[in-house]
Design brief:
- The structure holds two protein chains of two kinds.
- Chain A is mainly α.
- Chain A has 26 helices and four strands.
- In chain A, the strands form two sheets. Chain A has a two-stranded antiparallel sheet with strand order 1-4. A two-stranded antiparallel ribbon of chain A has the order 2-3.
- In chain A, helix 2 packs across helix 8, helix 9 runs parallel beside helix 11 and helix 19 packs antiparallel against helix 22.
- Chain B has 13 helices and 14 strands.
- The N terminus of chain B is likely disordered.
- The chains are: A mainly alpha, B alpha/beta.
- At the A-B interface, helix 1, strand 1, strand 3, helix 10 and helix 12 of A face helix 1, helix 2, helix 3, helix 4 and strand 7 of B.
């Protein structure tokens, strides 16, 4: 019993930072509909700023003052980010802003490295709260007790702010229907800025408050991000009580998981999330997304049409030149070109889902890495010949996609995206954990192509043929009746169903097909590299593809491929610089602001305006 | 659709740019070594490592280089991604004229390069990755490893543990390959020496995601005589803090793998654990012999003290230089053959690259932690020769795939 109580107290104390960061994120999403991936970075800055302030401010007052000040400083940084980066892109297509926040993450990572250096900083102790108190004989750190008091206090203050003040009324109104709030004469721009600042301040406060239990380091931004998203989704996006309850559930469950199933630490919260979303598709306290979201935000998408003969000739000539690469390029240029081609196919498969299908998947790496792992497992455990592994890998990935899609497609919008992410994490942790079969994070080694494909140039041709055919096939399907049905389901589910299209089935097949093509890219990858590791299944890999697709242009057919080639090329160049993340982040932010329709979309608009191509010309 | 051709153009351009601008022969004809590491992702570890390399290069080139030619390292960042590292490996070997590869800290990246090296017949000296698989279950003729492996260091701690009368052990290790290997190795080595010990709890926090309070409670609940710790970095800091607060370490023997390395101990400041038996690098007390000379030279050159990474970087260059001198050639096959049974004089003493598994016999320093002047240090330490902590030849042969 004593042990039980002590565990619950530990869990509640752990919930503190999680809740502060999560409620900020939830607040921001509720009002601005921005999925703020930079929220973990704000938490990290809070920790670093708090650390620096505590060094200069002495004593008990100085300690708590520094924590409060850290929150305020991060709040101001949040306001700046909102005004400089996000405000220009509110009109961009849905979820485009999350790419901008990803740019912010990269910038903050390098800035923190420049300012605070690479070494982990151990958080200072809270003066007067060192040591433990014995509760029913179990030692409980005094600072944990302080957190147990502070969190409900912050939660209550927020509740008061939201229910009893005019600002709260406006925020709640905007969460329900922001167009209506705008129509009633409320200055939305400042409301958004204010809410973003408040959310950022809460994240900063969370970062500073955890200092005595941990410290500040450069990995904490990504480390907090997943649990925070899980909490927000379980609680219901936009719901503060939901975030509070979910933070407690996750933290307490985690403490018990650590004791009774120590190996579970990686998967537990994702399983909870999947279970909750299966029972309550919009989280514990979330609301179904508002009907105003019908169709897509922004200008309507133009009808697509096949490429003109001229365009075909130009692409053909480009491919011909590429095919000559083995003659004039070095062996490394072939390796690089192979990498880029594989990534283009991967991005194109996600683009098919995102652009043509309107289904935003945050977990596409599951099929890319999944394909790679299917091939690698077959070769390692069944001595499968490479040719057969190549055939089975995309099929395996496609089947996985069908199964996962079948579950996820019950949801829509952000919840759908988060559920795909949860499943991708589940597969990742399965591979990571199941060392006997998958090699864990030591991966599977020596997966080399068959003798006839061994040479770098042969493998380059092999990749060229498969990747280009894959991309053409994806493009072709967009023009097929199936593609039309898929786009109909995307643009108006109700109308599509009224016309007799089984939208659920169409979307499921699209999901499976995109997974299949992702799996093909994965199979190409594993035989090119000769080994595969769980990081090909990580969230970061999903986001690599997501970002290039958005930056290339979701609403253009060539967006995925062009974005992938363009940004892979730039990354290859930038990587040679010391602070390449800073440069890459700034570049992403610049593209987001300068080309809100993506590189391809904005280029097309520019050309149309200058009269170089006719409107509607592909 | 024109954008697609634009892409192809760009691609071609990128590849052209990446090709050697011109294979202008370096006037000095330097011997180039390709070094791949996680410079951004693990900056706190790679910076001292790189300084160690540069110190050794300055010394060697000051003495006339290797075979009369200067030795040069090209440092490249792989972001901690195995796929990226392989691409860079190819670039270094086929574009930059590197004669062999070295580097990496993360085991998975090391394993990826190792597999690629064997396929392409490039020589790879794995400097810092610790995975046993690198030379044993996934070993290959082209991969050599410098540092004392997970098994070797765990066996050194197990030897110390076997001397005590502790019977019940609890372990805590990050939930990934290194943590699992480290626990398995410790168990294996300890039960060989003391068949009566019992492992009563195993905790597996996610790497850098420790829930320290809960882990400490769970360990306390199993009431072990001794604890074996593999956590490191921020996890170690949180674990030590919660454990000290909650009295977990009181009256218990604690063994910490790598916990005594300055990279892990220094961030803890005066909260560094006291009385733990650890492997690490007690540079503070090194004044004599080759180890003292290295510490002095490093401090004179950088106005900073060496970390274990600095020593490894330094020894990496020494090993490569020795192999090249022995080979008398920059041909891959000659270098590979030279590494086998190669003896190198290093600050740790003479080390040997065993031909049986390509593992060097570099050892580790084992001692007890204490806090002095607000900093964790190691006292009563000894250097344990790696050669004494390897599996028997028969076991190694059984593990290593047929060559």
């Amino acid at each position: 019993m004593e042990f039980f109580v002590a565990q619950i107290l530990t869990g509640l104390a752990n919930a503190s930072s999680l809740f502060l960061v999560a409620c900020g994120l939830s607040l921001i999403f509720g009002v601005t509909r921005i999925v703020n991936f930079a929220h973990g970075s704000l938490y990290m800055i809070g920790a670093y700023v708090g650390y620096s302030l505590i060094q200069v401010l002495p004593g008990v007052v100085g300690f708590w003052g520094a924590i409060l000040l850290a929150g305020i400083v991060v709040g101001i940084i949040g306001v700046l980010i909102e005004m400089l980066v996000l405000r220009p892109v509110y009109k961009a297509p849905e979820l485009f802003q999350l790419v901008a926040t990803f740019g912010v993450i990269l910038v903050i990572q390098d800035l923190a490295l420049i300012i605070w250096g690479p070494e982990d900083l151990l958080g200072p102790r809270s003066p007067g709260l060192r040591g433990v108190v014995r509760i029913m004989g179990e030692p409980i750190p005094k600072y944990d007790l302080a957190l147990l008091v502070i969190t409900p206090f912050v939660a209550l203050s927020l509740w008061y702010l939201m229910t009893k003040t005019r600002l709260g009324v406006l925020v709640r109104a905007a969460t329900q229907d922001r167009e209506m709030v705008g129509a009633l004469g409320v200055n939305q721009a400042w409301l958004f800025t204010g809410v973003f600042g408040l959310g950022a301040a809460l994240a900063g406060l969370g970062g500073a408050l955890q200092l005595p239990k941990g410290g500040a380091d450069l990995l904490m931004d990504f480390n907090i991000l997943t649990p925070v998203f899980v909490v927000v989704v379980i609680g219901g996006m936009g719901s503060l009580p939901g975030a509070y309850l979910a933070a407690i559930i996750i933290s307490v469950l985690n403490v018990f998981g650590v004791t009774y199933v120590p190996q579970s630490t990686l998967v537990l919260m994702f399983i909870v999330m999947i279970v909750v979303l299966m029972v309550r598709p919009y989280g514990l306290f979330g609301r179904e997304e508002v009907a105003g979201e019908h169709g897509q935000v922004g200008e309507p998408e133009r009808p697509i049409k096949p490429a003109s003969n001229k365009a075909r000739m130009i692409v053909g000539a480009g491919l011909f030149l590429l095919a000559l690469l083995p003659i004039f390029g070095s062996s490394f240029s072939l390796v690089l070109a192979t990498d880029v081609l594989i990534f283009c196919l991967f991005a194109a498969s996600l683009h098919f889902l995102l652009g043509t299908g309107g289904l935003v998947s945050f977990g596409h790496a599951a099929y890319y890495g999944g394909g790679a792992y299917v091939a690698a497992l077959l070769v390692t455990h069944a001595n499968t010949p490479m040719e057969l592994a190549f055939l089975l890998a995309p099929l395996g990935a496609g089947l996985a996609a069908l199964a996962i899609g079948w579950v996820c497609l019950r949801l829509t919008g952000v919840y759908f995206a988060m559920l795909t992410l949860a499943f991708a994490q589940l597969i990742w942790s399965l591979v990571f954990q199941w060392g006997d079969v998958t090699g864990g994070d030591d991966g599977l080694l020596n997966i080399w192509p068959a003798e006839w494909l061994k040479s770098t140039s042969t493998y380059f041709y092999f990749t060229l043929i498969l990747a280009v055919s894959g991309i053409i096939l994806l493009r072709h399907i967009a023009h097929s009746p199936f593609g039309y049905a898929l786009r109909a389901a995307r643009d108006s589910k109700r109308q599509a169903e009224a016309m007799g299209i089984d939208t659920a089935r169409v979307q499921l097949f699209a999901f499976g097909f995109a997974g299949l093509m992702g799996g093909l890219a994965g199979a190409l990858f594993v035989f090119a590299k000769g080994s595969v590791f769980p990081n090909e299944l990580e969230i970061a890999r999903s986001f690599d593809a997501l970002i290039v697709v958005f930056l290339g242009g979701v609403k253009t057919l060539a967006g995925g491929v062009v974005g992938a080639g363009f940004f892979k090329g730039i990354e290859e160049t930038l990587l040679r610089f010391e602070y390449w993340r800073l440069l890459m982040g700034l570049l992403i932010i610049f593209v987001v602001i300068a080309a809100p329709n993506g590189v391809v979309g904005s280029l097309r608009k520019g050309l149309e305006r200058s009269g170089l191509i006719k409107a509607g010309d592909q | 659709m024109k954008r697609k051709s634009f892409l192809k153009g760009l691609l071609g351009f990128a590849t052209l740019a990446a090709m050697p601008i011109a294979t202008i022969a370096n006037a000095q004809e330097a011997i180039v070594i390709g070094e791949i590491n996680h410079y951004k992702r693990m900056a706190a570890f790679t910076a001292p490592y790189k300084q160690g390399i540069e110190l050794a290069l300055e010394e060697i080139n000051g003495d006339g280089g290797v075979m009369g030619r200067p030795l040069e390292f090209i440092f490249r960042d792989d972001q901690g991604e195995p796929g990226e590292a392989i691409k860079i490996a190819e670039e270094l070997m086929s574009n930059e004229g590197a004669v062999m590869l070295t580097g990496t800290i993360l085991s998975n990246v090391g394993l990826a390069i190792s597999s690629y090296a064997a396929e392409k017949e490039y020589v790879y000296l794995a400097s810092e990755p610790l995975a046993d698989a690198l030379v044993w279950s996934a070993g290959n003729p082209y991969t050599f490893r410098l540092r004392a492996s997970t098994y070797m260091q765990a066996a050194m701690l197990a030897e110390e543990a076997a001397k005590t009368d502790a019977v019940t052990y609890a372990t805590i290790a990050p939930n990934y390959a290194y943590g699992k290997d480290a626990v398995a190795a410790f168990k294996d080595a300890l039960t060989r020496l003391r068949p009566d010990v019992e492992f009563v709890a195993e905790q597996w926090p996610g790497v850098f995601k420790i829930d320290a309070g809960a882990e400490v409670q769970a360990l306390e609940r199993s009431k072990p005589d001794a604890i074996y710790n593999v956590t490191f970095g921020t996890d170690l800091a949180k674990f030590v803090r919660e454990g000290t607060d909650r009295g977990l370490f009181d009256g218990r023997n604690v063994y910490g793998l790598l916990s005594g390395e300055p990279e892990y101990m220094d961030p803890l400041g005066d909260e560094a654990p006291e009385g733990w038996t650890v492997t690490g690098y007690p540079w503070q007390d090194m004044t004599d012999g080759p180890e003292g000379e290295f510490v002095a030279a490093y401090q004179a050159r950088y106005d900073d003290y060496p970390r274990i990474g600095s020593l490894v970087g330094y020894m990496t260059v020494q090993s490569i230089a020795a192999a090249l001198e022995k080979a008398g050639s920059t041909e891959g096959e000659a270098i590979r053959a030279a590494f086998e049974d190669l003896t190198v004089a290093t600050p740790m003493g003479d080390i040997l690259f065993r031909s049986i598994d390509n593992q060097s016999t570099a050892g580790a320093y084992v001692g007890t932690t204490t806090v002095r002047d607000g900093k964790g240090i190691m006292v009563d330490w000894v250097y344990k020769d790696g050669a004494d902590y390897l599996l028997s030849d028969e076991e190694v042969m059984a593990l290593r795939p047929a060559e």
